[in-house]
């Protein structure tokens, strides 16, 4: 073998070694990633099952409560837990774990609360732009929306069929959610005081503002909050 | 209409019993393992099986669904926190309700399924809490939901 041939064969051997090393390292990394993914799904699964358990516990106990006032309090807590459950059910369903789909959530929670209200004379109009926000903000937004919808449903006059309009807008750097209805009750009048302080705490957490206006065709509430345009992963 | 609950969390099962009664259905029993479930399915032939994927003896729900689907008159509905585990054909089941479901989400799904089983088809779109398999959706001629989105 000439010196030149030997050099070429050494080079080929070194290249093959390097490729084998890279392949082994890639396989290790892939294995580690797969294990992390399995773990993530396991944690997700446990969070969801625990939320289910919490809802079932509250419901089981509230069925045994005779005092209507205490039962109403339990129902409000159940609604809040259900709002959080709806967030978690929707998170992780998409491939992008870091983004929360606000319009999909609005549809789910509105249909739930409307069923719970027993008001089949009310119609809900959804008018949404595609709007994703970082998952970290999802729970706080969900709890505020829950309070706003319960308030709107409570204000809808029982005497006439009503209409509830929900709108989501997502201009750059911002999320806006509007709830308006053709009820005639003064905005804020029927607020349960815990619900009101919950909203005030959560709007502070989100640096959000809530504006209430009495449009001609009924009261309107508008939540606006700053949102990072690229959800941090 | 007789319903078997297959769920290893007994508190969740206890609450579902109330929802079943409210929907005008009758609970046949609660099974927490696949062995118990299969015994009741094969001996009692429930009209509907509400089935968790993860049971006391592991992720055995899918096998139960496949066996139940072969029996005449036994319909299965999954309730699962692990939607990704379900095969594309839902193992012959009607579909699934994702956990954590809400009280009204499960109530709506039960009412819809009870109507369809009774009438042999759907007269309205499925509630959003219920994801139907394409086979059952065709079988029941379930109309699509219209959304007013822009």
From TrEMBL, chain B:
Pfam families: Response_reg. GO terms for biological process: regulation of DNA-templated transcription. The keyword DNA-binding applies. InterPro entries: CheY-like_superfamily, Sig_transdc_resp-reg_receiver, WalR-like. GO terms for molecular function: phosphorelay response regulator activity; transcription cis-regulatory region binding. One of its GO terms (cellular component) is cytosol. Keywords: DNA-binding, Phosphoprotein, Transcription, Transcription regulation, Two-component regulatory system. Residues 1-110 form the Response regulatory domain. Signal peptide: none annotated. NCBIfam families: PRK13435.1-6. This is Response regulator. It comes from Chenggangzhangella methanolivorans.
């Amino acid at each position: 073998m000439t010196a030149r041939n030997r050099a070429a064969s050494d080079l080929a051997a070194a290249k093959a070694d390097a490729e084998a090393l890279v392949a082994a390292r890639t396989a290790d990394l892939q294995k580690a990633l797969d294990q992390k993914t399995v773990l993530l799904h396991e944690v997700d699964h446990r969070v969801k099952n625990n939320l289910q358990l919490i809802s079932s516990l509250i419901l089981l106990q509230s069925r045994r409560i005779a005092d209507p006032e205490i039962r109403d309090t339990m129902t409000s807590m159940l609604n809040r837990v259900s709002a959080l459950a709806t967030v978690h059910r929707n998170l992780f369903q998409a491939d992008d774990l870091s983004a929360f789909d606000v319009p999909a959530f609005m549809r789910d929670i509105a249909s739930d609360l409307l069923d719970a209200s027993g008001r089949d004379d009310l119609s809900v109009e959804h008018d949404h732009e595609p709007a994703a926000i970082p998952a970290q903000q999802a729970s706080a937004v969900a709890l505020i929306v829950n309070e706003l919808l319960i308030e709107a449903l409570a204000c809808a006059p029982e005497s006439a069929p009503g209409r509830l309009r929900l709108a989501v807008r997502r201009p750059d750097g911002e999320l806006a959610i509007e709830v308006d209805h053709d009820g005639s009750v003064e905005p804020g009048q029927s607020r349960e005081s815990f619900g009101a302080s919950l909203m005030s705490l959560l709007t502070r957490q989100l640096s959000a503002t809530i504006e209430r206006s009495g449009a001609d065709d009924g009261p309107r509430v508008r939540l606006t909050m700053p949102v990072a345009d690229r959800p941090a992963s | 209409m007789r319903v078997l609950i297959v769920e290893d969390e007994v508190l969740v099962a206890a609450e579902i019993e109330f929802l079943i009664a409210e929907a005008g259905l009758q609970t046949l029993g609660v099974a927490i393992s696949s062995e118990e479930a299969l015994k009741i399915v094969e001996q009692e032939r429930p009209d509907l099986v509400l089935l968790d994927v993860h049971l006391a003896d592991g992720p055995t729900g899918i096998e139960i669904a496949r066996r139940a689907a072969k029996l005449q008159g036994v319909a299965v509905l999954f309730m699962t926190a692990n939607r990704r585990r379900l095969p594309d054909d839902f193992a012959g089941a009607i579909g699934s309700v994702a956990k954590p479901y809400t009280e009204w989400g499960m109530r709506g799904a039960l009412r819809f399924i009870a109507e369809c089983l009774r009438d042999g088809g759907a007269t309205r779109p499925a509630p959003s809490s219920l994801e139907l398999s394409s086979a059952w959706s065709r079988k029941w001629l379930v109309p699509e939901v219209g959304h007013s989105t822009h």
